[in-house]
Amino acid sequence: MNLLVDCRKLKIIPNDRLVNGLEVIVKEHLKWNQIFNLSGHRTKQNVWTYQILDSLSPHQFIKTGNLLDIGTGPGFPGLPLALMYPDTHVTLLDSNEKKLAFARHIQSICKLDNVTVVHNRIEEFQVEKKFDQIISRAFKHLNGMIHHSLDLLTLNGEILAMKGARVDSEILDAETEFERCAITLHKLPHIVDEQRMLVLVKQRKK
User: Fold this and answer.
1) Which residues pair with 153 in a beta bridge?
2) pLDDT per residue over 163-181, tens digit each?
3) pLDDT digits (tens, 9 = 90+) for 51-105
4) 3-state secondary structure labels for all residues of the chain
5) Which residues are within 8 A (CB) of 48 and not within 5 positions of it... i.e. 6 or more apart?
């Protein structure tokens, strides 16, 4: 784990706040994972690579505004992105209260005033103020994410679906089902050989 070198590979210039916060997340993740099953990542390197860096890989697409992280689990990708972008308000949504307890713990010790943690299912989630962006790496299929996200987005809002390399068939299905959406595919930087892709979905102007 080489924080500065790995961040440079993702074209991130970390400040002290981000460095200190990410180190806290890694340390606390390993500690909590001994008691609670936060994730399958049990080593410092794996937490760093597959939780932290993976969460930060779409950073260039994040905008100032309100960001919803659906199926965040213990807070990924939302927590690292909230650390990096203090002017973006991040809502972490998940139905697993035990995992959200970790997100609340990190929110408290890192003093993340731009984070809201919500215990709910996406199917039952209702909002008064819609989101500028919705991100997730939890959905197995792109159609499902688009279906649950459209009503929660502002008119010019964006869906950011984090996916693996084999996403072409999902995009074809989504283009057929959601003709009013413009869908583009972007390759994300990473420090591992596995390809990480971002599917960006916007509603077409009428």
Assistant:
1) 131
2) 988 899 999 999 999 999 9
3) 999 999 999 999 999 999 999 999 999 999 999 999 999 999 999 999 999 999 9
4) CCHHHHHHHCCCCCCHHHHHHHHHHHHHHHHHHCCCCCCCCCCHHHHHHHHHHHHHCCHHHCCCCEEEEECCCCCCCHHHHHHHCCCCEEEEEECCHHHHHHHHHHHHHCCCCCEEEEECCHHHCCCCCCEEEEEECCCCCHHHHHHHHHHHEEEEEEEEEEECCCCHHHHHHHHHHCCCEEEEEEEECCCCCCCEEEEEEEECCC
5) 1, 3, 6, 26
Query: Phi and psi at residue 94, in whole multiples of 5°?
Result: -160, 160
- φ/ψ of 11, rounded to 5, equals 60, 40
Q: What is the reported pTM?
A: 0.95
Cα-Cα-Cα-Cα dihedral of 114, 119, 122, 127, to 10°? -50
φ and ψ at residue 117, rounded to 5 degrees: -105, 125
- Residue that is written with structure tokens 């499902």 in the block: 144
The tokens describing 152, both together, are 């929660």
Which residue do the tokens 């962006």 mark?
A: 133
Residue type, 120: N
Q: Which residues pair with 161 in a beta bridge?
A: 136, 199
Query: How many residues belong to the chain?
Result: 206
